[in-house]
């Protein structure tokens, strides 16, 4: 006996051995025969057969037979005739019947009227003209012959009365009866198609080798009880070997959504760097979303085509009067910043407008107004812009924001903080000059992707302008930076369509590894 065949035999379950031995006696045994001969249930037989088939020891063949069964309703119509046939029998003599007299003249039930009319017209036995049912020439031809559906009903009734153990099989129907079956299937509750699945087994070459070497059927232990261990009975038991290379079902454990995992990763980076977290409101006033950032009230970004304005509530409360006046003065004349401002009449009414926040930077200005430096703060949240949905744009996405405010910090501290942040995300970063409305100096951060051998812009940053800080009462430098999280997720998970992050694509979500990307230090 070869070592591989011996190993296979040793690892066979006792049910698999019983099934093989039964097939050795008679390969024509059905699953039911094998179950009866070995005191097994059908489920155990089929489970053993499936296991043997997966090891190329036997082949399992499945065949499905479809039988046509008359329902009680079908039997009734087979005996008395289909309703359209009963109407045709009257039309042959009367030639026409008023629809209002149909039930009375033909004896059909009221619920059958619509069915009758439909089938009379469909079979071209009659036509409807101004409420009158008239027989057609084609209908005249059918007065003494049956349609295929009627012939099939008749055959089913005769078959049921003569031999109830041999139902009519779909596979035995000729073309005409198949046409009749199609018609009967289109009607409710006349026939049922009963499907019966049968299995047969065939021993393959590997199975024949196993049988030629012989199988010893003996009860085997797969687990021990404490009584067997205490009594020492375990020493006399036969143990079944296990195949550690056997196939196993693929398991998909529960895990966080990839976008949520990246958000949590970013939060952990900021918290480890000593930042505190702040959360703002999705519904924000134009004052905090735009005005506090020294964005003029006629700026293009504030137009309806770029921003979602809310009707209810139509306006938001503004902060304390001194802050509103300070922001207004900075917009109009530059205030005490040394700037000329925007030289226009600032409107409190415009500042009260309700908007879905277009960025999380308003959280930063609120935090600066409410807290005294030195401070380090970050925020993560959803923002909203009137974008057309494409493979790289969404009207709703996530943004992360960070600020540091302290005496003596500079642009160099900004670059150092960014370098450390992106390093913890697993990226090499470089900087290039940029323009943002509320920071100066400003820079864009680009990260290097080795697999694409290219630099990708991932975030913006800069030092808050005096026009932003002075109205808030901040007299120390403040560095600020942020990035769009969806863009980072597209890079991390190598996807080219941002919409994938919001689709319920269970296959993609299952195949993502539990741990993905760079581990935090």
From TrEMBL:
<keyword id="KW-0436">Ligase</keyword>
<dbReference type="GO" id="GO:0000049">
    <property type="term" value="F:tRNA binding"/>
</dbReference>
<feature type="domain" description="Aminoacyl-transfer RNA synthetases class-II family profile">
    <location>
        <begin position="260"/>
        <end position="513"/>
    </location>
</feature>
<protein>
    <recommendedName>
        <fullName>phenylalanine--tRNA ligase</fullName>
        <ecNumber>6.1.1.20</ecNumber>
    </recommendedName>
</protein>
<dbReference type="InterPro" id="IPR045864">
    <property type="entry name" value="aa-tRNA-synth_II/BPL/LPL"/>
</dbReference>
<keyword id="KW-0067">ATP-binding</keyword>
<keyword id="KW-0648">Protein biosynthesis</keyword>
<dbReference type="GO" id="GO:0005737">
    <property type="term" value="C:cytoplasm"/>
</dbReference>
<keyword id="KW-0460">Magnesium</keyword>
<keyword id="KW-0547">Nucleotide-binding</keyword>
<dbReference type="GO" id="GO:0004826">
    <property type="term" value="F:phenylalanine-tRNA ligase activity"/>
</dbReference>
<dbReference type="Pfam" id="PF01409">
    <property type="entry name" value="tRNA-synt_2d"/>
</dbReference>
<keyword id="KW-0963">Cytoplasm</keyword>
<dbReference type="GO" id="GO:0005524">
    <property type="term" value="F:ATP binding"/>
</dbReference>
<dbReference type="InterPro" id="IPR006195">
    <property type="entry name" value="aa-tRNA-synth_II"/>
</dbReference>
<keyword id="KW-0030">Aminoacyl-tRNA synthetase</keyword>
<dbReference type="GO" id="GO:0046872">
    <property type="term" value="F:metal ion binding"/>
</dbReference>
<dbReference type="InterPro" id="IPR004529">
    <property type="entry name" value="Phe-tRNA-synth_IIc_asu"/>
</dbReference>
<keyword id="KW-0479">Metal-binding</keyword>
<dbReference type="InterPro" id="IPR002319">
    <property type="entry name" value="Phenylalanyl-tRNA_Synthase"/>
</dbReference>
<dbReference type="InterPro" id="IPR022917">
    <property type="entry name" value="Phe_tRNA_ligase_alpha_bac/arc"/>
</dbReference>
<dbReference type="GO" id="GO:0006432">
    <property type="term" value="P:phenylalanyl-tRNA aminoacylation"/>
</dbReference>
<comment type="similarity">
    <text>Belongs to the class-II aminoacyl-tRNA synthetase family. Phe-tRNA synthetase alpha subunit type 2 subfamily.</text>
</comment>
């Amino acid at each position: 006996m070869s070592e591989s065949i011996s190993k296979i035999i040793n690892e066979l379950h006792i049910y698999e051995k019983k099934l093989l031995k039964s097939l050795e006696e008679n390969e024509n045994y059905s699953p039911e025969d094998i179950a009866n001969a070995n005191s097994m249930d059908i489920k155990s037989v089929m489970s053993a057969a499936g296991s043997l088939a997966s090891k190329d020891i036997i082949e399992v063949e499945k065949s499905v037979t479809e039988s046509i069964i008359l329902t009680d309703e079908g039997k009734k119509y087979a005996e008395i005739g289909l309703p359209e046939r009963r109407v045709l029998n009257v039309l042959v003599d009367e030639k026409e019947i008023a629809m209002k007299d149909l039930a009375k003249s033909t004896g059909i039930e009221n619920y059958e009227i619509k069915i009758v009319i439909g089938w009379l017209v469909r079979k071209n036995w009659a036509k409807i003209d101004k409420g009158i049912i008239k027989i057609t020439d084609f209908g005249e031809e059918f007065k003494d012959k049956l349609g295929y559906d009627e012939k099939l009903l008749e055959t089913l009734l005769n078959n049921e009365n003569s031999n109830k153990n041999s139902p009519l099989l779909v596979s035995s129907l000729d073309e005409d009866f198949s046409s009749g079956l199609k018609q009967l299937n289109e009607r409710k509750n006349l026939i049922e198609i009963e499907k019966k699945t049968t299995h047969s087994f065939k021993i393959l070459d590997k199975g024949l080798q196993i049988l030629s070497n012989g199988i010893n059927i003996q009860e085997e232990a797969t687990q021990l009880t404490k009584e067997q261990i205490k009594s020492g009975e375990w020493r006399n038991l036969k143990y079944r070997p296990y195949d550690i290379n056997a196939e196993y079902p693929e398991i998909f454990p529960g895990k966080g959504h990839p976008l949520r995992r990246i958000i949590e990763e970013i939060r952990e980076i900021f918290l480890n760097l000593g930042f505190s977290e702040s959360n703002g409101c999705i519904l924000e006033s134009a004052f905090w979303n735009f005005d506090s950032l020294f964005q003029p009230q006629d700026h293009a970004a504030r137009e309806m085509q770029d921003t979602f304005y809310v009707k209810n509530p139509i306006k938001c409360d503004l902060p304390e009067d001194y802050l509103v006046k300070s922001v207004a003065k900075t917009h109009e004349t530059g205030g005490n910043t040394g700037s000329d401002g925007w030289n226009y009449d600032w409107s409190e009414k415009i500042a009260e407008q309700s908007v879905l926040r277009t960025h999380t930077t308003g959280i930063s200005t609120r935090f600066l107004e409410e807290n005294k430096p030195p401070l380090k703060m970050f925020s993560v949240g959803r923002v909203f812009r009137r974008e057309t949905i494409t493979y790289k744009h969404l009207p709703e996405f996530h943004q992360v924001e960070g600020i540091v405010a302290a005496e003596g910090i500079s642009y160099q501290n900004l670059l150092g903080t960014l370098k450390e942040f992106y390093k913890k995300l697993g990226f090499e970063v470089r900087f290039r000059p940029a323009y943002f409305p509320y920071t100066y100096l400003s820079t864009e951060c680009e990260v290097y992707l080795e697999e694409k051998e290219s630099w990708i812009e991932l975030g913006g940053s800069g030092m808050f302008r005096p026009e932003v800080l002075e109205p808030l009462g901040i007299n120390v430098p403040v560095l600020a930076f942020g990035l769009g999280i969806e863009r980072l997720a597209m890079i991390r998970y190598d996807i080219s369509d941002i919409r994938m992050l919001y689709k319920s694509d269970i296959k993609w979500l299952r195949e993502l590894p539990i741990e993905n990307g760079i581990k935090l230090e």
